[in-house]
Amino acid sequence: xxxxxxxxxxxxxxxxxxxxxxxxxxxxxxxxxxxxxxxxxxxxxxxxxxxxxxxxxxxxxxxxxxxxxxxx
Length: 72
Description:
Elements: H1 3-13, H2 18-25, H3 29-36, H4 44-53, H5 59-65
């Protein structure tokens, strides 16, 4: 599964809008929208910020799904 699909699924499971997730992660709505719609490839820093906001334990798996190595 692609990172963008996982992101949307995790966000919806926590009943968060893109705007609310953006506030929690410190990432703009337009960036998050672009990621979920496949127009933007997130940087490793953005993936880690999203993972922290969503309280994801396995940040390495999210980094890999987004095309980054966990050591970045």
